[in-house]
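Entry, Tuesday afternoon. Goal for today is a structural model of the target with pyridoxal-5'-phosphate bound, before we commit to ordering more compound. Inputs were pasted exactly as handed over by J.K., no edits. I checked the ligand SMILES twice against the vendor sheet because last time a stereocentre got dropped in transcription.
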Amino acid sequence: MSNGNDEGIRRYRIKRQLKQFRGWGTFFWPPCLFLFLFFLITKSQIITIAINEIQSIYYIRMRETLTMYSDRLKPLPPYLFSKLDDAKEAAIKKGVDVIDLGVGDPDQPTHPHIIESLLLAAKNPKNHKYPSYIGMPSFREAVSDWYKKVKKVDLDPAKEVIALIGSKEGIAHTPFAFLNRGDVALVPDPAYPVYFNSTILADGVPHIMPLTEENDFKPVFEDIDSNIAKKAKLLFINYPNNPTSATADKSFFREVVDFAKDNAIIVCHDNPYSEITYDGYKAHSFLSIEGARDVGIEYYSLSKTYNMTGWRVGAALGNPDVLAGIGKIKTNIDSGIFQAVQVAACEALNGPQDCVQDKNRMYKERRDAVLRGLNKMGWGARVPKATFYVWAHTPPGYDSISASGLLLEKAGVVATPGVGFGKHGEGFLRFALTESVERINEAFERMESLDFVSAKR
Ligand SMILES: Cc1ncc(COP(=O)(O)O)c(C=O)c1O
């Protein structure tokens, strides 16, 4: 019996404990549940924070990687022209009627017969394939025929002409074909920035040849240290010249040939403005000089002569070995020019040339309007015989950036600061003849009304 009694006591105790436990349970469960939920929420927050952290570290690293440009980009000077573009865009957004004498891009459209030729060629499926690397034979022949007719230079289209996607492309690729790390290229200053920048991109060292007014904006070869001259592999020149609009006669080109021969330097003559000339001046091809083909090449462009800047077509001509070097780079980087564009370029070169003369008459009127305006304001500028630029002195007390900034801010006129073409361009502004005479006159009326002295204060 005692066993039955013990069993009863045991059951009684269990029941009581269960009751107690339920009592405690009702008391403890809510905070436990709360703590559990809190833990879950905070844990998920911790997880989210952790994920965010990982992501942000990843993004920061990614962002760093995306802007971790190669060392060869670091020495490139800031591209001043894009700043100028931004300032111009900002002025336009503010509602300013901007007169743009800054850009070296013809305001007139490509001539209609060239466009017609493109339209026809674009419809021909034969032209839809990869083009030849060095250019269609018909294009190279058209360039060589044009050179014979216009520049009195005989070129073998098979070996002495290659097509370029605009002359800029050929200029930019040339240093890659000839410069090893640390090799020197002789580069004018002020100048089209691609000579300097492509030398840097190819790990070369640009050696500046100052172009000064006293030297008629020509390099003085005697001033180049003979050790540097001996080390130099490339020499860039450009006449008719951008930005100074200086021209070169045959005697200067002869000097270039002699200097190049003495020092075993490849001459790269950039000639995109050869057909924009005034007052009876005719620009010589560097290749027309005896011995020039032994030392170098010339870049030719259809961009300015035929209002075809957007079409991207030009050529390099002259020494076959130099062209072969550039060609080797090109076969590894680009795949030629759309054939329909080359067909249209043939039409430009072989077709009627009166459009070129008409354009020169138009640019001459604009040039004279700019010169009149500058003279009235007392700003010195030489009368350009070629190119569509006027290279004018900045007003007294102004450097080229402040003068150009003032013109845009107070007169809504864009002129390119000379320093954008190199430090020796300081003290000058470049006015491009790419607005009508009426707009040029208006630009100078606005500029005349500016008080440069008080604006300075
Ligand atoms: C001196 C000079 N060289 C070359 C070029 C490039 O011309 P292209 O359109 O043939 O690339 C320009 C364009 O402004 C230029 O001014």
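The mean pLDDT is 92.
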